[in-house]
Amino acid sequence: MIRKLLLAIGITSMTMTASACNTVKGLGRDIESVGEAGDDLTNLEAPEKVERKV
């Protein structure tokens, strides 16, 4: 009985660990894409200023 319980707990913990790694990996990709988008925005050339005639 105890052996089956330990086996079930072990399998459950391994499954949760594997899914947590996958989640963290996805989160890392999301953060990286946000950073790259920010870099793209900051690397754009500023439009020339148009002088207004008053």
UniProtKB/TrEMBL annotation:
Residues 1-20 form the signal peptide. Pfam families: Entericidin. One of its GO terms (cellular component) is membrane. It comes from the Bacteria. GO terms for biological process: response to toxic substance. InterPro entries: Entericidin. Keywords: Cell membrane, Lipoprotein, Membrane, Palmitate, Signal. Belongs to the EcnA/EcnB lipoprotein family. This is Entericidin A/B family lipoprotein. It comes from Pontixanthobacter gangjinensis.
